[in-house]
Amino acid sequence: MVKNIVVAVDESEESMHACEWACKHLSAIETPKVIETTDIQQQQQQSYNMILIHVQSTASSVSAGPAYILSNQVFEFLDLEAKRNTQRVLNRALHICERYGVKAETHVVIGEAKEKICEAAAKLGAHLLVVGSHGHGGFIRAIRGSVSDYCTRNSKCPVVVVNKKVFSG
């Protein structure tokens, strides 16, 4: 049975560290299965699916404040920038996977990160969810809420939270 490993990535260093942690640890325990395609050819297959997920914000989620009304052109620009940012994030994460020889697919969802990560992990049949921890203090967590805390409480699969101490030398 192939396991689905979902890694949530965003523009933060912490999420890229989580991606690297997943690649490093999964490739270390990987015992590639060899599939015979012909008598001459053999192909190696990962025993897991690595799925990189990015939650893209929408222009409508940008708060301009009570005194501003954003034009359609501004919304279009913000949507275009969000799509460009998504592509940068996923390309960076895919590059990390390539360095470890891990094949990965990508998924983009739109909305509130903590909720959409858990929803997507469930829809994708995740056996494991890997997220990075930004390491914000209690005050920021109290105001904004922690994505990693939310995921550990609400995910339908085990969650690994990779913090910056794992990568500090």
From TrEMBL:
Residues 1-162 form the UspA domain. PANTHER family: ADENINE NUCLEOTIDE ALPHA HYDROLASES-LIKE SUPERFAMILY PROTEIN, UNIVERSAL STRESS PROTEIN A-LIKE PROTEIN. This is UspA domain-containing protein.
